[in-house]
Amino acid sequence: MKTSRLEAFSDGVLAIIITIMVLELKVPTQHELADLLHSAGVGLLTYLLSFVYVGIYWNNHHHTFQLVRQVSGGVMWGNLGLLFCLSLFPFTTAWLDQSTFARTPVIIYGLNLLCAAIAYFVLQRIIIRQEGPESPLRQAIGVDLKGKISPLLYVTGILSALLIDPNGHVGVAIALACYVTVSILWIVPDRRIDRLARQYGTPE
């Protein structure tokens, strides 16, 4: 199967995820800026973080499949695994918002981010195994430093929220800082994949 159907399906799922997240935002009952901050201040922050993450996955997913020639059953299941993890973002984001960054929702949000990162890694490995060690994607990934740092930061954040100052906010603050740091690391698309996609051209 060509990649176009898989990309179209994935684009649709990611668009729905973003739509669901924005619908979770609370509309202020009054018309002042203070009412907006009171009603949706935290929600806007959590929405922004999750929106950036979904945008990062959409961007990298698009660039990755520029280097894929054919879609096998394994690739489809790997892609579904990634979409499953991303589809949990509206739930974990809403819990993060409604709890005002309570410890357990922060941990669960981190686990959601970690699972999505693992699912994306697995998808890449399936594609590389299908197309061989000399595949364009394998060349583009290289040592994948950001891909190795990100899970470590997620685990650091999860363990910080779990073990540091359990009855306070220090561990939660460290966890949130880790999650934001990863989003900043990935907000610029991987230039290696973009460069090779232009070199090899979009699959027909």
Tags for this model:
9 helices; mainly alpha; 204 residues; globular
Proportion of residues in β-strands: under 5%
Described by the principal axes of the CA atoms, the overall outline is globular
- Major sheet attributes: none
Following the backbone from N to C, one meets helices and strands in this order, namely: HHHHHHHHH
Q: Could you tell me how far the N terminus lies from the C terminus, measured between alpha carbons in angstroms?
A: 11 Å
Cα-atom Rg, whole angstroms? Answer: 18 Å
The DSSP helix count reads 9
**Percent of residues in helical segments?**
over 70%
Q: How would you describe what is shown here?
A:
This protein is an all-alpha fold and 204 residues long. It has one domain (3-200). It is built from 9 helices and no strands. Helix 1 (3-23) packs antiparallel against helix 2 (33-65) and helix 2 runs antiparallel to helix 4 (89-98).
